[in-house]
Model the fold of this input.
Amino acid sequence: MSQFRQTRLIHYTLAVLTAASLAILSLPLAAPVRALRATIHYVVDPMAYSGFVGASELTGISRRLIGLVDAEKENEILRRKLAEMDLMSTRLQGMEKENARLREELKLKLPASERGLWAHVIEKEPFRWYQDVVIDAGESQGVALNAPVFAPSAHGLAAIGSVIEVRPETSDVLLMTNSLSSVAAYVSSEAVSGLVLGQGGAILKMLYLPPGSKPAVGEDVYTSAVSPTFPPHMLIGAVARVREPDPLYGFLSAEVVPAAAPQGFSEVLVLVRSPGTRRG
Amino acid sequence: MMGPFGWLAVYGGALVGQWVWASEFPFFGYSPQLVLVATVALAARRGALPAMSAGFLGGLLGNVGTRRLFGIDALAFVWVAYGVWWLSKNVDTSRCMPQCVLTVLMSWGYAALASAAGLVFAGSIQWPGWSACLVVPLYNALAAAALFMALEWAEGRRRLR
Done:
């Protein structure tokens, strides 16, 4: 090939390739070419890759931040729910206690003329711990003088005393441990009757047990059917000690531990007249 | 003399090497333009026609993976190959030093042409900056020297066989 011809060929090639380059530069790229460029650009371009990685990291950070905020909100909601649960738990416990009380109350075979009224102990004097208490139920709620009063104990409802003074909204309850208190009672196994007296302390005294009877320690003591105040067969306590026969009168006596000690109750059940009935 | 496949390998290596170098091992933020260096070497050794064709294709391929105007490298490398051929009429381009000097000159020519084409086709001069205009041609010259020695070594082995 002559040099002149080769030079001409070079110029033609230059012109063709320049025109092609200018055409490529000026014409819009087809979608597949743009996609290919974008793909290759994305794969090989370190800046794009770094940008992608950085953006991913930033995206992750924002997602984590959002997650943290959400978690905090959720935590707040859960904390409130937990507080509500605590409240509900407390209420549930109260309801369970109430349920237990009501179950005990159901054991009471009350005459149709009487019903049970739950009241709170609102006053207990330290110097009169075993003497009397004040409850938040009075004449307005139907409480009457000499109404028997019971309290929950480990073995069910137990007799604790009777109402000695009634005010419109409150009443005084004379406890069985008071030295002025006395209740006709019997010991479960022997079915022998006696009289339970208060001594002003934690222990009751049961007098007039027949000389031949042998009440055992731990036996339960119940209210007698002859008691004018209490319904029969209500638990009073348990025999703690049996004393020697009285040399003068010859009867036995026993120490009785009350089933419901004054320090063990804050709520009591008072028997009141049902509406529209009169106490016989 | 190295055959077409040998030059294909050189261009492929230059393309890949330029991407890897630019992304992983830039010297002070710059890297040599290995495709341009290969185009200069091809034009100096094999003439304008193969160098223009290879420069055109290499430029297009090189532009695929960059943000630059698509086709700008093809245009520039075609003219680089032409420029080397034109200068080789008066300069002995078969030696190392002239090739390095040509590479530096073509690097500046490339920068000028790319800037002008950017002004025309992208609406703004795509000027790489003065520091790039000083550093990159130097890198290109060093790469041209290395390529010259590698090609001499390869052709020497080929002659021995």
Notes: Residues 46-107 of chain A form the longest helix (62 residues).
